[in-house]
């Protein structure tokens, strides 16, 4: 039995909850996965996983063993990295997850700069507006909006706050009438970003005054911020969006800010990564690089 391989197989089976998924992840056959788990259980003389036709269940001994196995494998990885990275030349691969619109507008150019400084590093950028499971998908670091972390195995660091504003095209405003108060929004066609945690509830503040607006069904709902911007620019309605996405449109007056005295809550961005990646020089270097960029 190859002990390191068996431990690696056991860990991925538990994390992915499937022999089949672990086989695909590790580029092994399903039979090889079963063989490694069986040999490990025979060696330990203890069941680690109970198999049923529908689901895997980790045993009490399996859970105890899994926790220790993770520590052992992470320590081995850190030991390897301490030597590999001692030359200060970043090598290998880095897998990053980020929202699609933010990636196209801001993150991808930063990654290109980072690759110029570290030409021996291979980067995979996964652009997805939905939350992804970092452990399951093998993500080294994710950029995502604020909120509670879904797992105690994750760590986070605040990156920046994005100011959000209300805006619409001059054509839409000329056709549909002026907006003098947040309550007027209920009479207008509001364009909805479906992945927002408050897609149909917009909260606006003017000093001590707070208005919470329930947005009625509009003519357009989309799960991408740039598509939302394009729709607003073509005169179809009002949107609430990060100012970062529409700087050029505001400058050219393709879009006009509405109710500038009323402020929406900022959209906070965080860097999120598995706790065992904290010691990775690649992850630390990228975090410092992107944080420095947003500080400017």
TrEMBL record:
The lineage of its organism: Bacteria, Pseudomonadati, Pseudomonadota, Gammaproteobacteria, Vibrionales. Residues 1-59 form the HTH lysR-type domain. Transmembrane segments: none annotated. It comes from Photobacterium frigidiphilum. This is LysR family transcriptional regulator. GO terms for molecular function: DNA-binding transcription factor activity; sequence-specific DNA binding. It comes from the Bacteria. Belongs to the LysR transcriptional regulatory family. GO terms for biological process: DNA-templated transcription. The keyword Transcription applies. InterPro entries: LysR-type_TF_proteobact-type, LysR_HTH_N, LysR_subst-bd, WH-like_DNA-bd_sf, WH_DNA-bd_sf. Keywords: DNA-binding, Transcription, Transcription regulation.
């Amino acid at each position: 039995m190859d002990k390191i391989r068996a431990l690696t197989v056991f860990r991925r089976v538990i994390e992915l909850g499937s022999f089949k998924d672990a086989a695909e992840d590790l580029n092994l056959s399903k039979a090889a996965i079963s063989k490694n788990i069986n040999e490990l259980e025979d060696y330990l003389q203890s069941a680690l996983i109970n198999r049923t036709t529908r689901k895997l269940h980790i045993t009490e001994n399996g859970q105890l063993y899994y926790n220790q196995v993770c520590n052992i494998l992470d320590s081995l990885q850190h030991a390897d990295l301490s030597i590999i990275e001692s030359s200060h030349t970043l090598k290998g691969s880095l897998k990053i997850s980020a929202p699609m619109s933010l990636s196209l507008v801001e993150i991808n150019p930063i990654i290109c700069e980072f690759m110029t400084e570290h030409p021996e590093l291979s980067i995979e950028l996964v652009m997805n507006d939905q939350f992804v499971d970092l452990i399951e998908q093998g993500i080294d670091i994710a950029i995502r909006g604020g909120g509670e972390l879904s797992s105690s195995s994750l760590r986070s660091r605040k990156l920046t706050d994005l100011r959000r504003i209300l805006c619409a095209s001059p054509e839409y405003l000329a056709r549909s009438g002026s907006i003098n108060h947040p309550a007027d929004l209920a009479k207008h066609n509001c364009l909805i970003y479906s992945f927002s945690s408050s897609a149909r509830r917009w909260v606006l503040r003017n000093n001590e005054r707070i208005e919470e607006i329930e947005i009625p069904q509009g003519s357009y709902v989309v799960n991408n911020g740039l598509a939302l911007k394009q729709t607003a620019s073509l005169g179809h309605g009002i949107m609430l969006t990060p100012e970062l996405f529409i700087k050029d449109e505001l400058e050219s007056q393709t879009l006009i800010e509405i109710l500038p005295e009323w402020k929406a809550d900022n959209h906070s961005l965080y860097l999120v990564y598995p706790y065992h990646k904290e010691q990775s020089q690649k992850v630390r270097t990228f975090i410092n690089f992107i944080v420095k960029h947003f500080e400017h």
